[in-house]
Backbone:
């Protein structure tokens, strides 16, 4: 769990200082526990993780769909255990929704929290857009301010490699950043939806460009030296969530309407610890009370293990968190 400025240190009771007696004189010293936890907080903030991925960690990654996901999890944990004594980074390759970004973020968060390294998360398309904007007269950032953090941090997580526009400028920019990290032995974790195998012959309308064709063979060759390829296969988890929602709609006998049919797990949070990593245990049929239609969702919080109830009103998309021992349930 990411710490906030309001977390109270149990070592110094939130004062930030410890009193030590030296030769009969009390001397105030900065609390080392506070300094460590605040440093973790600053490092996590500077990593610039998107809000959707802040809670993603190894504890909420469940590789139930394929053996390749189990192997990817094993390699990720092994990477963390061996860091910084690792020869190469990792390149997660596979279709959408199989957990590539989840594992990449879990590696970053674990290393920041356990080894206090500097790290940065970037999405390729967003990075290229931001860099282009930096050339404008009204941009708050310069090209140097955009590029330097990516080159200097201990660990760079590069998401969706090969999704940016395949221009020569984009290829050269990406090559410059990654080549700098290679030259100075900086670790890099990458993910891509494209096939990593080099295509044979020219592309056709029916064949998507491989990663090598998209980023150029020169950069592709360097990446094969920088990173170990970890291929992940399996169904799209996001599609499964949508399908589960539609299945619930059919089971509950509701007709299609403009209102939301069911909240996704990402819409819920634990009423006890406010974590967003939720497992749905069971769901009730649509019921009516005091003229309002609702159904109950029984949930469990993965981080703290608490069971709780969510009451959802599909007509208004309202979500309530009644207690489990409420007599009205």
Residues:
């Amino acid at each position: 769990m990411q710490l906030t400025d309001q977390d109270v240190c149990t070592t110094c009771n939130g004062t930030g200082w410890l009193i030590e007696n030296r030769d009969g004189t009390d001397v105030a010293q900065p609390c080392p526990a506070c300094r460590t936890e605040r440093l973790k907080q600053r490092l996590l903030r500077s990593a610039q993780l998107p809000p959707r991925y802040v809670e993603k960690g190894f504890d909420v990654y469940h590789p139930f769909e394929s053996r390749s996901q189990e192997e990817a999890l094993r390699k990720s944990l092994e990477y963390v255990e061996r860091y910084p004594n690792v020869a190469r980074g990792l390149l997660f390759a596979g279709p959408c929704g199989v957990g590539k970004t989840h594992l990449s973020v879990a590696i970053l968060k674990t290393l920041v929290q356990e080894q206090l390294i500097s790290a940065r998360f970037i999405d390729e398309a967003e990075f290229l857009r931001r860099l282009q904007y930096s050339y404008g007269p009204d941009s708050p950032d310069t090209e140097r301010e955009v590029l330097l953090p990516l080159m200097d941090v201990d660990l760079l997580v590069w998401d969706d490699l090969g999704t940016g526009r395949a221009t020569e400028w984009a290829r050269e920019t990406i090559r410059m950043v990654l080549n700098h990290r290679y030259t100075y032995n900086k670790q890099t974790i990458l993910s891509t939806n494209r096939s990593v195998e080099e295509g044979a012959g020219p592309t056709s309308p029916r064949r998507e460009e491989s990663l090598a064709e998209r980023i150029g063979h020169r950069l592709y060759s360097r990446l094969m030296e920088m990173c170990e390829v970890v291929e992940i296969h399996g169904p799209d988890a996001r599609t499964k969530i949508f399908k589960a929602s539609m299945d619930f709609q059919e089971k509950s006998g509701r007709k299609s309407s403009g209102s939301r049919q069911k909240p996704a797990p990402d819409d819920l949070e634990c009423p006890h610890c406010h974590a967003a990593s939720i497992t749905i245990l069971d769901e009730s049929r649509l019921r009516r009370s005091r003229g309002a239609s609702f159904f109950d969702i029984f949930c469990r919080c993965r981080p703290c293990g608490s069971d709780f109830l969510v009451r959802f009103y599909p007509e208004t998309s309202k979500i309530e968190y009644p207690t489990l021992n409420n007599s009205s349930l």
In short: The chain has two domains: 41-231, 237-320. Residues 41-231 form a domain with the Rossmann fold fold (CATH 3.40.50.300).
